[in-house]
Specification:
CATH class: Alpha Beta
Structural class: alpha/beta
Distance between the termini: 17 Å
Largest sheet: 3 strands, mixed
CATH topology: CBS-domain
Order of helices and strands: HHEHEEHEHEEH
Radius of gyration: 18 Å
Helix content: 40-55%
Shape: elongated
CATH architecture: Roll
Strand order of the largest sheet: 1-2-3
Number of helices: 6
């Protein structure tokens, strides 16, 4: 047997982990407190929110349309393009939102994030945003499993 155990044991362990993750629903670990800002909010105002530890802010465009701006958007879009701080967030936020049902598994959420190359998913039920799930939420859940 090698340092990491046999290939057979590793495959069995992976199958067990996949089974466990497919049984945990998004609604069980999602955050329900949402920060929502109107599209007219400035980048500066959003940056002040993020300075307080907020990693993402939903952006309300109209009665039905929502987008999101994340701390990563600041690094990639705002800083790299040297956008002025008085620019409105609607010019930087990602529209439309990537969403997932609260009744989907966190394994499905992880796969969707990996496919879309994103770190946050809005949780949507009946066309309404009810929460958010992040890669950090999923990693936190993974850390609870014993080897």
């Amino acid at each position: 047997m090698g340092f990491f155990g046999s290939k057979k044991n590793k495959e069995a362990s992976n199958n067990n982990l996949e089974k466990e993750l497919s049984q945990i629903l998004v609604k069980e670990i999602m955050a329900k407190e949402l920060i929502i800002a109107p599209q007219s909010t400035t980048i500066y105002q959003i940056s002040k929110m993020m300075e307080q530890g907020i990693g993402s802010v939903f952006v309300k465009k109209d009665a039905e349309t929502m987008g999101i701006i994340t701390d990563r958007d600041f690094a990639i879009k705002v800083a790299a393009n040297k956008y002025p701080l008085d620019m409105t967030v609607e010019n930087v936020a990602s529209f439309p939102l990537e969403t997932i049902s609260p009744n989907k598994s966190i394994l499905e959420a992880a796969k969707q994030m990996a496919t879309k190359k994103i770190r946050k998913l809005a949780v949507s039920e009946n066309n309404k945003i009810i929460g958010i799930i992040t890669t950090s939420d999923i990693v936190r859940q993974l850390s609870k499993f014993q080897k």
